């Protein structure tokens, strides 16, 4: 069980922004797109993204949310209208298709080092923050799971300094603690954020504007998610996907409860190490006393035998008490570990 509790890894994010002095990073004018001319996913949609915007693109799957992000970054071209981007705009993009750009023959470390201006130590630091430690940085991209490949793609975004982050379902493959770490990092990021997500906690805590795909329409809302639910809400057709999600406040409370248990577990582990060190120190002293006691017995030093015997018994009792405390800590640690998973 010690091996199970020895380390509780956490993914860490730190996105790097570039100062932006203009008023608008990008704009769409009467944007239209459809894979079929008779069935447009996006029709006559106009909006602009300004410095500091946090825009969540929300709605049911298959409505065109990811398509909009690909249009914004230039992976797809509109069938009508236009997109105007600031000439020197630097975009950090993460999406399901990001994995297609990975070189299957490279290692994790090699894939990150190939980014312009990135030194090996910088790449190693990011590898560590994304839980690629030790020999894991030498794994070939072809050997990685889907979740691991997503983490490599996120690593490339972290290493890339940007004016704007465009993220498509960034919380996929992340556990609750990692989702919260991502939210905290996005809130620290000083650039602009546009993201697609079904995570209501992420939407609530990050977004200050919304692009809503609902009932076959794309609507811009210049307010946050709580206001959207109060003023507009979902149509009956599109509400089911979000009704299944827990309220953001409940998500947050679950996270805080779990975070507290993780902190308690770490404090427990620290106590275990302290007690184990005490046992080690006391055992060495007890062994030394045993040697002295044996010598006193051989020399028939009655007073020394009595004194050393009392000390030896007291120290043995102290060691037993430490083992009892350690056993209690291990039981408590096992309970906390079960509640944390």
Give a brief description.
This protein has 341 residues and is of the alpha/beta class. The chain is 48% helix and 16% strand.
CATH class of the largest domain: Alpha Beta
| Main sheet makeup | 6 strands, mixed
Identify the CATH architecture of the largest domain: 3-Layer(aba) Sandwich
Please trace the helix and strand order, writing H or E for each element: HEEEHEEHHHEHEHEEHHHH
Describe what this molecule looks like in 3D:
With 341 residues, the chain is an alpha/beta fold. The model is unreliable at 1-8 (pLDDT under 50). It has two domains: 2-90 and 161-245, P-loop containing nucleotide triphosphate hydrolases (Rossmann fold); 254-340, Helix Hairpins (Orthogonal Bundle), CATH 1.10.287. It has a six-stranded mixed sheet, sandwiched between helices. It has eleven helices and nine strands. 48% of the residues lie in helices and 16% in strands.
Topology:
Layout: H1 2-5, E1 26-33, E2 42-49, E3 54-59, H2 65-73, E4 80-85, E5 91-94, H3 108-113, H4 120-129, H5 146-159, E6 164-168, H6 176-188, E7 192-196, H7 200-206, E8 209-214, E9 217-221, H8 225-231, H9 240-243, H10 248-298, H11 302-340
Helix pairs in contact: 4-5, 7-10, 10-11
């Amino acid at each position: 069980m010690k091996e199970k509790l020895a380390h509780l890894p956490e993914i860490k994010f730190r996105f790097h922004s570039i100062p932006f002095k203009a008023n608008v990073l990008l704009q769409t004018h009467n944007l239209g797109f459809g894979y079929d001319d008779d069935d447009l996913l996006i029709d006559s949609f106009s909006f602009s993204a300004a410095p500091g915007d946090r825009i969540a693109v929300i709605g049911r799957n298959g409505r065109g949310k990811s398509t909009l992000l690909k249009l914004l970054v230039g992976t797809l071209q509109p069938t009508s209208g236009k997109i105007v981007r600031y000439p020197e705009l630097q975009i950090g993009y993460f999406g399901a298709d990001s994995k297609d750009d990975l070189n299957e023959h490279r290692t994790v470390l090699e894939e990150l080092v190939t980014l312009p201006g990135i030194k090996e130590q910088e790449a190693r630091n990011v590898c560590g923050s994304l839980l690629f430690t030790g020999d894991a940085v030498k794994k070939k991209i072809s050997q990685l799971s889907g979740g691991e490949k997503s983490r490599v793609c996120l690593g490339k975004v972290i290493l890339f300094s940007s004016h704007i982050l465009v993220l498509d379902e960034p919380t996929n493959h992340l556990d609750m603690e990692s989702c919260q770490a991502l939210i905290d990092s996005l809130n620290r990021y000083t650039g602009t954020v546009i993201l697609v997500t079904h995570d209501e906690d992420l939407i609530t805590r990050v977004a200050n504007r919304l692009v809503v795909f609902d009932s076959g329409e794309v609507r811009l809302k210049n307010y946050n998610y709580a206001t959207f639910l109060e003023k507009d809400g979902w149509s009956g057709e599109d509400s089911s996907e979000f009704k299944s999600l827990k309220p953001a406040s409940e998500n947050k409370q679950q996270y805080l409860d779990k975070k507290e248990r993780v902190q308690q577990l770490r404090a427990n582990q620290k106590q275990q190490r302290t007690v184990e060190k005490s046992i080690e120190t006391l055992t060495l002293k007890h062994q030394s006393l045993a040697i002295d006691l044996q010598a006193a017995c051989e020399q028939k030093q009655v007073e020394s035998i009595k004194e050393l015997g009392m000390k030896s018994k007291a120290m043995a009792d102290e060691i037993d008490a430490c083992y009892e405390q350690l056993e209690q800590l291990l039981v408590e640690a096992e309970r906390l570990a079960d509640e944390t998973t």
